[in-house]
User: Fold this.
Amino acid sequence: MIRAMIVDDEYFVRKGLITTLPWESFGIRIVAEANNGKKALELLADQPVDLIFTDLTMPVMNGFDLMRSVRAQYPWIDIVILTCHQDFNYIQDTLRLGALDYIVKTELEAGNLEESLRRITDQLRGAADGRREAPEPVARWLDSDEAMLQSHMDEWLKLYWVVKDDEFDRLCACLETIRPPMPKLHKVMHYLIMEMNRLIGLGELHEWLNRSEHVCTWEDWRRFIVHFRGAISHKLRCSSYPEYVLLLILDAMEYMKTNVDSKVTQSAMAAKARMSRSYFSKSFKDIVGKSFPEYLKELRIRRAKLLLMQTNRQVADIAEECGFQDYRYFSRQFREETGFLPSEFRMSVGDSAVLPGGRPESEL
Assistant:
């Protein structure tokens, strides 16, 4: 029986979870509950627990700090996040901290939590089976190994490996040469899945995260990445366009990642790709799944977020660097995307060590 604890500052959420779900039919028993992270740690000192369901926003000690403390003191305990947020960048930060999975609280009202429990217990069983069947000796993981892996992961985000077989083979061989330990490989897969979802709206996010948890050997990894590549290829509609068009659109996407100023326009990118504006517009939307203006806007807002968090520059200067000539228009667009005005967003994140959507060092 899996011993579980629920940590949430909302009394009725805790009691609702405890009383309405058929925990024991999934092999789970709720043995403790707490209204904040500090209380949870106090209970853990006396109450053995295998699994924690925790909210993130709580007084006294929040869920992020609780996760860090549990990772340091009780590394064998698995953690599932309870959240109201469905923003994938936000969820990604919890996965980087080692969360097994997450549950959106609105599912409680919709009565969909049984499927979530089934997914979570499947992951726990898969991880346990992997530990029994394929224990690998733990090699020492050096800072130089981490730096090499971080640099290597940037290559996967360029998407050329989806189109070109030789690039796919090269990246697979390189990752197997770096050979991160299996827990690190799981985080690599989580990161890749989340980033692909952000870039092209992959879909079936839970399914792919669940599949990645069942990877226990490098043979499993090879099967996983072949299937994952096929799914992305299908999403990019690779069969509908000749390879040279796909590569030109990927080139445009790569260029836009680092160039988001006002000079980057659809007409300019079409000319750069030597396509007519109308054909470039259609092929971009077909392949990426988003229109050019929509994709560019996302990149500009993302860049603005980073500058607001990492610098003390004036908001008007940030707006201009991110391609917005009108400061008021930038503020409206930023608020539509984030729910905050730029100044409010800067105040809300404060000195957070984990940047939404970013990849801090040593967190893969």
